[in-house]
């Protein structure tokens, strides 16, 4: 099976090890993994800030970079959800209509691809400790991802999965929301971290590094004893 990698901007710049771990998992499952180095942003930050014309320019390049019949896999429910749900509006009544349909058909978030396409829930991973899972808004609300990540985590040897209170509540990041409404954003982050700690977890796990980056800022500032982990890093552990 051929797989094209879509690596979001912040993963590329700040968490490249997660991208490499995603490759590690996909190759273990027999996928032929390819990466187009010409790829850039999907356009979500510009779109969310109201710059739709500028977003359309970036998205047009994205369509060209990912004009493929292969599966496209990304370690982000947020970026995956944006492309799926908003590219159709960006390119409505345009010559790119069929390209958008093809892209939406082939694009999957990482855990979604493992569970729903490859039908795999046990990667043979090992991570000792207690983990709790944060339902990122992009994954849950934009992609409908809920049980898949939990099935994968339940099969990690040595990892006890405990649900935190309000696991579906937003962490407060929301892209530019965290800049424009910093006090509210930090209050939401504090609540999320406190709920994770109250669960007894050693690891706060999610599908989206945007959320985890935001929460890790609070954790580091306050010296909280919990570690963030993207689910790809968890699934690549111990083998």
Automatic annotation (TrEMBL):
Gene Ontology terms, MF aspect: oxidoreductase activity
Xref: InterPro entries: Cys_rich_dom
Domain Cysteine-rich span(s) in chain numbering: 3-82, 132-216
A single Gene Ontology CC term: cytosol
Signal peptide: none
A Pfam family annotated for this UniProt entry: CCG
Protein name from the UniProt record: L-lactate dehydrogenase complex protein LldE
Source organism per UniProt: Chitinophaga jiangningensis
């Amino acid at each position: 099976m051929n797989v094209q990698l879509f690596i979001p901007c912040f993963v590329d710049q700040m968490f490249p090890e997660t991208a490499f771990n995603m490759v590690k998992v996909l190759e273990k499952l027999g996928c032929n993994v390819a990466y187009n180095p010409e790829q850039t942003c999907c356009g979500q930050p510009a779109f969310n800030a109201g710059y739709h014309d500028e977003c359309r320019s970036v998205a047009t390049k994205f369509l060209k970079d990912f004009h493929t019949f292969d599966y496209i896999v990304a370690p982000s429910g947020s970026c995956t959800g944006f492309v799926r749900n908003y590219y159709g509006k960006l390119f409505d009544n345009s010559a790119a209509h069929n390209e958008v349909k093809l892209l939406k058909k082939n694009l999957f978030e990482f855990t979604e691809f493992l569970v729903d396409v490859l039908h795999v829930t046990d990667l043979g991973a090992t991570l000792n400790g207690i983990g709790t899972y944060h339902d990122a808004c992009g994954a849950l609300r934009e992609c409908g991802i809920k049980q898949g990540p939990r099935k994968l985590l339940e099969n990690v040897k040595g990892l006890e999965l405990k649900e935190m209170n309000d696991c579906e509540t937003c962490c407060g990041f929301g892209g530019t929301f965290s800049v424009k409404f910093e006090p509210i954003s930090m209050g939401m982050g504090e609540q999320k971290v406190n709920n994770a700690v109250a669960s007894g977890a050693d690891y706060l796990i999610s599908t989206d590094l945007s959320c985890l980056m935001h929460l890790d800022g609070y954790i580091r500032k306050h010296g909280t004893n919990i570690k963030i982990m993207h689910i790809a890093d968890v699934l690549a552990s111990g083998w």
